[in-house]
Amino acid sequence: MSDLPTRVRICEEGPREGFQSEPVGIATQDKVALIDALAQSGLRDIACCSFVDTTRVPQMADAEAIAAGLTKRDGVHYTGLWLNRAGFQRARATKLDLTGLVVSSASETFGIRNNNRDRAGMQTSQATLMTDYRDAGVDVFSAYVFTAFGCNFEGAIAPALVMRAIEGLLQIVENPEVVYLCDTIGSATPSSVERLVAEVRSRWPDLPLGLHLHDTRGVGMANALVGLQLGIARFDTSIGGLGGCPFAGNAAAAGNLCTEDLAYLCEEMGIETGLDLNALIEAAKMAERIVGHALPGKLKQAGLPVA
Question: Which of 22 and 255 is assigned the larger pLDDT?
Answer without folding.
Answer: 22
